Each structure stands twice: as structure tokens, then as C-alpha cells.
Amino acid sequence: MSSTEDDAGIRDELQAWLTRNWDPDLSVRDWWARVGDAGWTAPHFPLEWGGRGYTRGSQAIVYRAFRAFGAVPPPSGLGMMMAAPTILTHGTPEQVERHVTPIYDGSLAWCQLFSEPGSGSDLAGLTTRATRDGEHWVISGQKVWSSQAMESDYGMLMARTDFDAPKHAGISWFAFRLDQPGVTIRPLREMTGRALFNEVFFDDAVVDDADLIGGLNNGWAVANTTLLFERTGIGGGGGGGGFPPPGTKGGFLDLRAGDAAEMPPPEGNRGLVVSELVDLARRYDRTADPHLRQQLAQVVSLSRIGEWSAARVRAEAARGGNIAGVANIAKNQQTVMMKLAAGTALDILGAEGLLWGDDAPEAGRYAELFNFVRCMSIAGGSDEINKNVIGERALGLPREPNPDKGLPFREVLARTKGTAG
């Protein structure tokens, strides 16, 4: 069966399910619980994970089908893209029940608490400290570039639980509750005018030992799972967005589902798809421009290559194999495509495309998008880090020398920062 036939089958099945189950008088909370129970929140997850066993591309198909039907789409966000599959991979059954179920039904929103001011690309150099105190851990330190932290209920927290272990060996991964004393979240204003990113401070905040995922000091392995799903998600065209947003802080859970379905997504929540770019060129009568035609062809080509690469990954996985470095390749390719697409949109609009505000062409949507996609060279792992991973894991190039290998992290800090940590 071709992918087109697969997609049509998903749409037909979903159309029948929505006809039977859509109830605009339910609250968004109750509607999302029904959607999650049916596996539509995570259609690309296997059946044993509460999904429907479809391909990764089914997420976009399902989202569009819900919208076209007039129903509230399934909850999405970073919890769905990264936290849920990480906990499903490394968590205990009790942790899965306690943390993944509220992601599926949209009742809790998540953010990522990985990067720090002194260790961005060098993630394993993090110094946020977790100190054991009975049945919980005390957290002190700082994180930065935490997307949507202001709107989140939980965070995927990496903290150092052993300063005397080697750099990568003394880290643990926690499911961290954000709404508590000792946690301060400050938005970081971007050049788009929005504040998607945040910095987060921990001053003796606490997390239960029961929320340590994957075992003590095994956080680097757990984090690599998180990063794999993040890069795969970005590479597949996802970014953790969606509307309405999940969680307790968005104000949507108790809203009537029919009213929420009629609300248009905010401009900042809409990504740029290839068909929209082609339609824009047609509306502005720019399809005859040979330079723009070449750019459009390149965007379409990159999009198709991404789809074929995803199909290759699925075929390899069905045979029980994997393709080394494929998530990093997909993420970097998506970055190139997003930048090219945003630049092409401004080329179509001409000089007026640089204007912002309600009176600007397309209300300044493409000018804002052009500025936003600059961050994609860093988000989800910088281009340089991804290229290193591709070189080492996919091409078999030798690793760079690491003079700190095997040293206690406390000693590494003393060498590099003049402090014993």
C-alpha cells in the first residue's frame, strides 16, 4: 500500500470516529480525555504505548483532519514530543501512569530544563545541583532558553547528582514540578517581540525521588532519548506547538470544546508549510520569476527528501534496524528548509514584506517568521553539534580528543573555572 493510500485510510478512519464521538458541549478537558483514550493524541506511537501504530507523519494528518472536521485537535506540545516518549522508554509503570496519562489528555504541559548559561552546546557540563534529602532531592542552579516554561506545569530537568563522577556519569533526569517555592521563571524577550524562551532559577526547590526517571546517575542516557525525539520531531516538521495549548495555565481546559474549536490559532503558533508558500507566490503573481521558481523548487525538494528519508527510517525500523545519526540529519535539514522557506516568503512579498503590524502585508507574519527561524540553528542542538554527531556516528569519523574523559567532574570544573564546584 502506498503512503497516499495509508494517509487516506487514516483520514477515513478518523472521519468515522469523529462523526461518532465529537461533542462540542464537552469541556476541552473531557474531550481531550476521550481523544487520548482512543489513541489519537499519539497516533504515531505503538499500540503498547497508547498510540495507533501509524507513521510519524500521521500526527500532521490527524491534526489537519480534526481542524477540517471542526473539532478541537489533540493536545500537543513538548510533553507529547519529548517527555512522554522518554518516560515511556525509561520510566517505571507507575511513572508512566502518573506522568504520561496527563500528557495524553492535555491536562499538564511540559518544558525542557536542559541548557544552562555556562553549558549550552556542552550539555554534559551542566552544574545545576540535586542533593538527596530523604525521599526527595533539593535543586539549586539555573536553566536558560527553556521554551514555554511560563506556561508549563512540569519540566524535564537534568541535574548533577554526583560531582565526583565523570562528566557524563553523574547526571540524573527528573520529572520536575514547576509550581512550587524556590522556582523563579523569567521570560526572555526575543527580536520577534514575543517571549517564547525563559530562564529558570532554582533556590532549594524540591523533587520527589519517585520522579527520578531512568535511575540514579543515568541521566545522560535518558537525555539522549529526549534529544533523539526532539530532533526527530523537529526534523519531521514538528515543533511542539499546536492550539489550544495543553496544561493548567492556558485557560482552555474548562472551556466548552465547541467554543475552543472556533477560535483561530494565534499567528505565532502557525508554521509555514510548502503549500502555503506556493499559494503566496500565486497570490502575489510571482510564479514567473525564475529566481523565485528555483527557490520554491528547492523548498519542495527538501520537503520531499525529508518525507523519503522518514519512509526509509520506517522501513529500516520494520526490519529491526536503525540508521545512525538520522535524527541529527533530519533536524539540520529541517533548519535549512525553514530558513529558506521564510526567506523565500519575504522575496515573494518584496521590500514591504519587512514591515510588521496589522497594516503590513500578511499582518507581518512572514517578517516575524523570518526573524524567528534564526534560532533553529541552535534549537534542538546546534548545527555544529549535530554535524559532529553525524560525522562520528554516521560517517565513522574519529572522535575529537577528550582530555577530561574519566576525570571526576569536580576536577574538570576546577581546571576550567578555577573552582571545585
Widest sheet: strand order? Answer: 1-4-5-8
Rg of Cα set? 22 Å
Task: Give me the secondary-structure category.
Answer: alpha+beta
Order of helices and strands: HHHHHEEEEEEEEHHHHHHHH
Shape: globular
- The level of helicity is 40-55%
Biggest sheet features:
4 strands, mixed
Detail the poorly predicted runs: none
Mean pLDDT rating: 89
Percentage of residues in strands: 5-15%
How many strands appear in the DSSP assignment?
8
Oligomer: single chain
> Can you count the helices?
13
Polypeptide structure, described:
- With 421 residues, this protein is α+β, with helices and mostly antiparallel strands.
- It has 13 helices and 8 strands.
- The protein has helices spanning 3-21, 28-37, 58-69, 78-90, 93-104, 219-235, 257-261, 274-283, 290-318, 326-349, 365-372, 383-394, 409-417; strands at residues 110-113, 129-133, 136-143, 154-160, 171-177, 183-188, 197-208, 212-213.
- The protein has a 4-stranded mixed β-sheet.
- A hairpin with a 2-residue loop joins strand 2 (129-133) and strand 3 (136-143).
- Helix 10 (326-349) runs antiparallel to helix 11 and helix 10 (326-349) packs antiparallel against helix 12 (383-394).
- It is globular, with a radius of gyration of 22 Å.
- The protein starts with a helix and ends with a helix.
- The relative contact order is 0.11.
- The model has no long low-confidence stretch (mean pLDDT 89).
